[in-house]
């Protein structure tokens, strides 16, 4: 099967970007959780940076529909591709790339920073949502369970929480205190801020998928109301990052509303 | 009733299973036996013992066996004892019933007196078990629990109602917790079901069986591969089904798998009984609609048609709408089947192994679709449009008393563009058949 999948991706790559591309994600208002929202926004930002047309299609069962069981995923013609890395690869296959001008060293750099965000900010978001009691009870359990009828919502919350906790244990994050988690995020923001170093984007004047990913996560952290606002406060202490987020929002998302 | 040979002087007769009527055709040369006409032997039942009762209340057992006291001769005793055994069996309280008949002894014994002893073994208060359940081309592990005879009254606590409806009414409560994993390559999805089923079965009249079922079921639907149709992918995820079901059945068949006479009315009906060959007809149908817009009908609920056990000559689920080769199902269907069963040609293994086999000729018809029950168009016309037909012949084998195995050669006669036909040899195994 994987071979067939690969072949189908290869074949799909030869076709131009279809018109009816749809991005599937959970409902933004009622359902979506912080980490998922960040990833969905990152993909949206990336596609917009590539000037590719797509429609956002909210579905309650988007997560189950996804081939990797993670949101978001896009459907382009007959092809279904999930998550930012997969989608970047898919888009590159069509000859569209944001990283053409980067040399190998810069590309490696970019990948390192992207993996930093995945392994720190994304994990911290999962920790806040599922381990922190206050956030879990007031936000996560209600939103995650909102699409299921009773008693499935309880069962599903329980199952999903166990799943996340298992993942956090494997990453050795579960036993961290919330202060330690915030410290990790602080360090990560510091590193990003230093890398940005006053430039418009991480790599000179053009955005890359790294910018999309940073935008997705930081914008979501800044705009999502949670019982604990510490995460947003940490990000606010880095004006460079705030500027980047505002720049991308203005450049790629505000235009849409003006139409 | 034929005559039964008894050895002179022997007076203990064990009737382990009197259900099968046996006629002994002794060759006339044998003189070691003396013929006795049982009707001539006067008999009177002095005593009836029932061994092995602990929970079951006396009165319901007494009701079953008191007829036996009215017996006048030995044949009558045997018949009535058998009838009592059947009644006891129908209470559903006992897993094993055997009968001993002896001459009565003691001071109060009459010269023709007999003593009948029923040895019964009660069901445990709760029985449970793990079993493998074979469905139509799928298997499932079933962990079940049953509480028969809950209150010592044949499982029946509404005793007043039962009095009116004669003693045949029994109430069985079956609870099962199940987890079933099924894969449907023809529809491009796999499904994990976890659920709870409570079934309350009772007879309202001796033949009318009701099953009230409540089923709560969590279904986790996933696509089988990346290649699965997007129309199927859209439906993946968890869903909860809570259903109340009423099954009304009248089963008059003499055999579950190869009936030769009798009929079953459920959703299917079988009419039979022409000479040695059996002509069997089935008709079934189904229709569903949304109760309200909040309730969704997913692919797990849809009706599918086609396959070796429904409309033969088509791929499994091969009739009806498809998307990228995956069957999507429809909200309504009807199907009908006509079978001509005959014993194997030249009757090999007659009376033994060969009885497990039948050759059959079949003719299947059906239709599936989202029929709109509008007033302005004729329902019959709607149902007839695009009707699928197939016919063929094959050999059927009975497996246990439960399932049927068929090897058929099929000719799909009329089909729709989207259908996936399967002409030629088709193999099927299952419990429910068209």
UniProtKB/TrEMBL annotation, chain A:
Subcellular location as annotated: Mitochondrion outer membrane
Highest taxon of source: Eukaryota
Every copy of the Mitochondrial outer membrane transport complex Sam37/metaxin N-terminal domain together lies at: 40-160
Q: Name one GO cellular component term.
A: SAM complex
Q: Where is the Metaxin glutathione S-transferase domain?
A: 186-248
- InterPro entries from the UniProt entry: Glutathione-S-Trfase_C_sf (IPR036282), Metaxin_GST (IPR033468), Mito_Protein_Transport_Metaxin (IPR050931), Sam37/metaxin_N (IPR019564)
- GO BP field: mitochondrion organization; protein transport
| One Pfam family matching this protein | Tom37
The family line of this record is: Belongs to the metaxin family.
Q: What is this protein called?
A: Metaxin-2
Question: Organism, per UniProt?
Answer: Rhamnusium bicolor
Automatic annotation (TrEMBL), chain B:
Compartment(s) where it occurs, according to its Swiss-Prot or TrEMBL record? Mitochondrion outer membrane
Indicate how the chain sits in the lipid bilayer: Multi-pass membrane protein
Q: Locate the Bacterial surface antigen (D15) domain: which residues?
A: 171-278, 283-433
By its UniProt entry, which Pfam families does this protein fall under?
Answer: Omp85
* Source domain of life: Eukaryota
Q: Which UniProt keywords apply?
A: Membrane, Transmembrane, Transmembrane beta strand
- Biological-process GO terms, alphabetical: mitochondrial respiratory chain complex assembly; protein insertion into mitochondrial outer membrane
Q: What is this protein called?
A: Bacterial surface antigen (D15) domain-containing protein
